[in-house]
Design a protein that fits this description.
Blueprint lengths: L13 H29 L7 H28 L12 H22 L9 H16 L2 H30 L4 H14 L4 H21 L3 H21 L4 H5 L3 H22 L7
Length: about 280
Amino acid sequence: MQQKKLLPKYIFNWKGVAALVGGYFFSSLIFAGITALSIFVFHKNLQYSEASLLIGNILVFSTIIFAFDYFVCRPETGKKLNFNFSTTNFYTYLLVFPMMFGMMLVAEFFTNLLPVSGPFWGKMYEWFSELMGMISKDFPTMIVMTVVMAPVFEEIIFRGIIQKGLINGGMKPVKAIWISSIVFGLVHGNPWQFVGAVLLGFVLGTVYYKTKSLLLPMLLHGFNNLVSTLLIKYTDSESFSMAFHIPEWVVLVAGIFIFGVFYFLFMKKYKILYSE
């Protein structure tokens, strides 16, 4: 019986890093040129308009993904990037969403430990608050950017390209999950989102590794961002503790319990549908 020939798999190494970084800078230059042209021709800075934010995000993320596809994936595998977006059994959804929510509570506790005042932290937090204010000034745009676009593009890059590429290259899955999560936290560019992004990235990476489908990480990512967006919109706070007037230690204990129970069930008790 003839053994089926396995197709080569793309790996993530220095070429992958160069492709992603190069794609980012190239698209940023294009966007900067469009912005400069708008100022010169229309005498108006469209950089922070709602339409410009959406177009800019699509341009940057699409170029980054295309750069990895064209310069790394196709030369190594002979085919374009292709991801699995298949669904899994209903019980899995009942496990991963509470697991994600539990980690959201844990992440909030540790994020709230970071200072927001002082000569260094104060100025950085002021910049971070102004940035979030610009993004959140138009609620529909914020929903599209954070709940739809970010989960789709970011999961393709951090889980589908980086994490999977590291595992394809022989790295242990746990190490690959944490590396992709740390990079995911670093690119947010501020310490208040770094902590949550790393911890939540661990959940997203674990779910992706177990199910082999990007659909669940995208849905979980969107769920996290939707909850945060609604908290900001209707409570002027991204904190469960402040929104519902409960002590932070209660948030931590509840988060550890919820995450621990559903993580155990997800990893040990139920059979997960694997598909590649």
